[in-house]
Amino acid sequence: MDYLSIINRYYPEDNGLRRILLRHSGDVARKALLVAGRHPELQLDLQFVEEAAMLHDIGIFLCDAPGIECFGTEPYIRHGRLGAEILRAEGYPAHARVCERHTGAGLSREDIIRQNLPLPHEDFLPQTMAEKVICYADKFYSKTRIDGEKSVEQAERSLAKFGEAGLERFREWEKMFG
After folding, report:
1. Residue 68, CA distances (Å) to 1, 42, 61, 108, 120 in order
2. Which of 39, 104, 143, 152 is most buried, taking the most CB atoms under 10 A from its CB?
3. Distance CA 74, CA 175 (A)
4. What is the pLDDT of residues 104-131, one digit of tens each?
5. What's the rounded Cα separation, in Å, for the pair 166 and 126?
6. Taking Cα atoms as reference points, which of 118, 28, 125, 136 lies closest to residue 77?
7. What is the C-alpha to C-alpha distance for residues 121 and 83, in angstroms, rounded to an integer?
8. Distance between CA atoms of 7 and 88, rounded to whole angstroms?
9. C-alpha distances in angstroms, 23 versus 16, 61, 133, 142?
């Protein structure tokens, strides 16, 4: 897979949104590959990890998030699901799973119903080790402040708004990958 050709298809212009996407996704990919390198026992497919990390936010352009130069119409919480639809249409179902399972530390069906989120009433929790590593790596980088890496404590504070279950998943991953 040539992930850059997919990015170019959906982000053809050199603009602020494309630069944010490439910077954020590149940071997430580097951190995920660093985790994979420190943990060879996970036996991760490094090419897949890089590709999926670079594409995990492909759906943001469809969302309404002016702070990161997204001027679509969909609620931002749907960006992972929308990205998954794009990648499934492109023929990449495993990459699509990473997209739809990276929001917060994953979202359970119960979280979606309780918070009345505009998502299908399904579990969107990372299941494979690659999904978990990419979701974990993503928590260290913001698209609104793209110039640095968050500390574990900052990542935990950001996750707290998604509920205790996601925070606990992140803490488990920190023990496994940190």
Report:
1. 27, 34, 10, 26, 25
2. 104
3. 35
4. 999 999 999 999 999 999 999 999 999 9
5. 11
6. 118
7. 17
8. 14
9. 10, 15, 18, 10
Helical packing angle, 93-101 and 46-55, nearest 10° = 60
Task: Mention every residue, 6+ apart, whose C-beta is less than 8 A from residue 143.
Answer: 20, 21, 24, 57, 60, 68
Measured distance CA(48)–CA(20) in Å, rounded: 22
Residue 110: Cβ within 10 Å count: 12
Q: Strands 64-65 and 70-71: what pairing?
A: antiparallel
Q: What is the pLDDT of residue 21?
A: 98
Tokens representing 162 are 């998604």
pLDDT at 159: 92
What six digits make up the tokens of 57?
């936010």
In degrees and rounded to multiples of 5, residue 63 shows phi and psi of -105, 160
Q: Say which residues have a Cβ less than 8 Å from residue 124's Cβ, sequence separation at least 6.
A: 80, 81, 100, 101, 103, 106, 107, 108, 112
Is residue 150 within 8 A of residue 178, CB to CB? The reply is no
pTM confidence score: 0.96
Residue indicated by tokens 């950001």:
158
